[in-house]
Amino acid sequence: MRSKEPPEPKEIKPSPPARRLRADASRNREKLVEIAAIAFAERGGNASLEEIARQAGVGIGTLYRHFPTREHLVEVLYRREVEALCAAAEELAQREVPDVALAEWMQRFVDYIAAKRGMANSLRILFDANSEVFANTSGMVALALQRLVDAAIADGSIRSDIDISDISQALSGIYSAPDTPDWRDRSRRLVSLLMDGLRWGSPKAKL
Q: Per residue in 35-54, pLDDT tens?
């Protein structure tokens, strides 16, 4: 019986280089995600994975090692967008008065919708595949909005005769608006009008 081949010499796999490679891989992955988020928001389904890899300064093979398919990349992006939107709610609530925090968060919601629209086809594929991403993020955005609305109502800076589902529906309507060159600007104006309506008739507005 032939003996097993001897193990590779220790010197070709030193520990420090391995750690550097892991750090490089982590940086490459994060850069790919950052570039991809911009690409999908700006070009939607036409975003090229090859172009994303080029702008991230890596080869397409590196992209595929991290994300074997477009849907793998989209799943990470979608989760990242949800978490960033929810984190923004917390940050704004601590930094701004309640109605301003709500207004700024709803403007950030436009950017979230822009990214989501750009990933629409892949998100449908993920949904059909029963991906856990939707189960894990379900309700996170609604909860963030609810907290901001509750704080603004308690502060008296927006009306109290509103339902969170009405605001959610109004914001979600942005998603289905025609994809025109001025879509983002129009959406921001609509969000401002929505916020004006929430403030109208509030206790503070009557003072």
A: 998 888 888 778 899 999 99
Query: What CATH number corresponds to the domain at position 51?
Result: 1.10.10.60
In whole angstroms, give the CA distance from residue 58 to residue 62: 6
31 shares its domain with 116: no
At 7 the three-state DSSP class reads coil
Identity (one letter) of the amino acid at 2?
Answer: R
For 32, 100, 186, the CA distances from 189, given in Å and listed in that order, are 31, 16, 5
CA distance 7 to 88: 51
Residues 39 and 59 grouped into a single domain: yes
Give Cα 181 distance to the centre of its chain.
Answer: 21
Q: Report residue 30 as tokens.
A: 């994060």
pLDDT digit string (tens) for 192-203?
999 999 999 898
Q: Which of 146, 185, 38 is nearest to 177 (CA)?
A: 185
Per-residue pLDDT band for 116 (boundaries 50, 70, 90) equals confident
Task: Give the residue from 124, 107, 110, 114 showing the smallest Cα distance to 44.
Answer: 114
